[in-house]
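re: the backbone from monday

yeah here it is again, tokenized this time
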């Protein structure tokens, strides 16, 4: 790795870590934020939801905004917006202002991930893309595990505004480094065409409505809610209309023509399905740790770290061998590891401890690391470099929507299966002499919850199994001819 490549890598990965950690760091602080600002926990949940809603709107615009503003201006602007919004979040004193500032932060954060992926891919080129994607993967796979740990520590030992203010010095340093080291490639054609506001409005309306349905559907009892029904219809109509306008436009705000590349299309289907299973399982693991095993938020965050370490190791290994073995071996091995681990988690009881969860969590991390490098490389390797910024934005959007759908369905199944299990257990209970009814109800509720968690863990396992045919098809795509150069580059990076 040259000095220039190292400086660019450090710069963009700082941005990636900030953006992704901010998606998870706030979750453990929501009860504290609600209490300090005099808001309900439901209102405080919008601090997390608002960030995601804003982030998904800007992701597909990555290519167009890069061409309109230029790579360096666009990326530096995103860092500046994210940093300023972080400062405002830490200084606010009411929940409405905090949610609005989080949405500004999401607009900046939604740019940092896909732009970083495009910059890394361009910096190292197709010949060394495996190492580049391994470095990028370390950010998007490891950072979510660090967020709850860092957030829990800050809330327990300081005050909640620090979870936002900590971004300010990092953001300033990243901004200055981006000004100095991030180039604007000559092949990115600058466009001065007027913004297609109707298309942009339809896209924003459709994505925001869709994400709201996925985020709040379980809370509002899905299609029994008029709001959910209305927004689901708005989402479908808006996105279909946007698609029609985009296909007819010679210079669209989102280049959907990149889906003409079969490896890119198949890769995004795989990212959607894998994201579905990954986000779902990653959500319920800390919930199981806290609600069933009685861990604190900080302890549950620490329990996720072994899986993150396994992911990091697996990515380094995958980047070394991806040019030497059939990519399908890595993809299918990774999916099987993740499936087996989730199936094992589906056998946990209320008496389980860290020794029962350590190996399955390591195995999940190993599986995700083996899949991410070849899947990212295969998805993007055939995309022309002038279309790469838009392609990475669409890929990140696909992964996020797949994850949101996974979380929505898994949480719905968890809630409904808890009720079913509770009724089944309650039907067989006979009152014992001298045992308080409150104790009986507590045991029933705990057992019902354990049964529901076990059920959804195994649903996640089946999702990874269902992804096998898609991963097999993606793996048939050809990697760059000189992919074997990746091992040397990754060894130097490590």
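seq for it, each position gets an aa:
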């Amino acid at each position: 790795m040259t000095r220039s490549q190292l400086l660019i890598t450090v710069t963009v990965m700082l941005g990636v870590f900030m953006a992704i950690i901010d998606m998870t760091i706030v979750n453990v602080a929501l009860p504290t934020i609600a209490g300090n600002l005099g808001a309900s926990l439901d209102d405080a949940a919008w601090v997390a939801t608002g960030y995601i809603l804003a982030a998904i709107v800007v992701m597909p615009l990555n290519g167009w905004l890069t061409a309109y503003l230029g790579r360096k201006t666009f990326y530096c602007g995103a860092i500046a917006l994210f940093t300023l919004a972080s400062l405002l979040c830490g200084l606010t004193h009411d929940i409405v202002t905090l949610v609005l500032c989080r949405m500004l932060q999401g607009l900046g954060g939604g740019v940092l991930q896909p732009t970083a992926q495009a910059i890394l891919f361009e910096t190292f080129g197709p010949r060394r893309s495996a190492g580049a994607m391994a470095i990028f993967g370390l950010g998007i796979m490891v950072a979510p595990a660090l967020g709850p740990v860092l957030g829990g520590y800050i809330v327990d030992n300081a005050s909640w505004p620090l979870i936002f203010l900590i971004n300010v010095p990092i953001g300033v340093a990243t901004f200055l480094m981006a000004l100095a080291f991030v180039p604007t490639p000559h092949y990115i054609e600058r466009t001065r065409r007027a913004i297609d506001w109707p298309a942009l409005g339809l896209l924003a309306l459709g994505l925001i409505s869709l994400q709201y349905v996925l985020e709040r559907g379980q809370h509002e009892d899905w299609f029994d809610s008029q709001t959910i029904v209305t927004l689901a219809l708005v989402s479908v109509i808006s996105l279909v209309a946007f698609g029609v306008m985009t296909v007819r436009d010679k210079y669209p705000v989102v280049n959907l023509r990149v889906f003409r590349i079969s490896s890119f299309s198949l890769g995004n289907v795989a990212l959607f399905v894998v994201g579905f299973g990954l986000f779902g399982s990653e959500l319920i693991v800390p919930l199981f740790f806290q609600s069933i095993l009685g861990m604190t938020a900080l302890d549950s965050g620490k329990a996720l770290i072994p899986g993150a370490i396994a992911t990091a190791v697996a990515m380094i290994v995958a980047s070394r061998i991806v040019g030497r073995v059939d990519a399908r071996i890595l993809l299918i091995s990774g999916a099987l590891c993740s499936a087996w681990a989730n199936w094992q988690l589906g056998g946990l009881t209320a008496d389980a401890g860290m020794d029962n969860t350590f190996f399955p969590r390591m195995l999940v991390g190993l599986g995700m690391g083996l899949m991410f490098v070849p899947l990212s490389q295969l998805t993007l390797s055939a995309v022309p470099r002038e279309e790469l910024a838009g392609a990475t934005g669409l890929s990140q959007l696909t992964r996020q929507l797949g994850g949101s759908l996974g979380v929505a369905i898994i949480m719905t199944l968890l809630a409904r299966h808890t009720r079913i299990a509770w009724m089944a257990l309650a039907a067989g209970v006979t009152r014992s002499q001298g045992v308080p009814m409150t104790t009986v109800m507590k045991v029933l509720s705990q057992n019902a919850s354990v049964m529901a968690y076990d059920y959804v863990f195994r649903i996640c396992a089946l999702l990874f199994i269902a992804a096998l045919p898609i991963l097999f098809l993606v793996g048939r795509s050809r990697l760059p001819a000189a992919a074997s150069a990746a091992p040397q580059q990754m060894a130097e990076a490590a």
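Residues 388-427 form the longest helix (40 residues). The radius of gyration is 23 Å.
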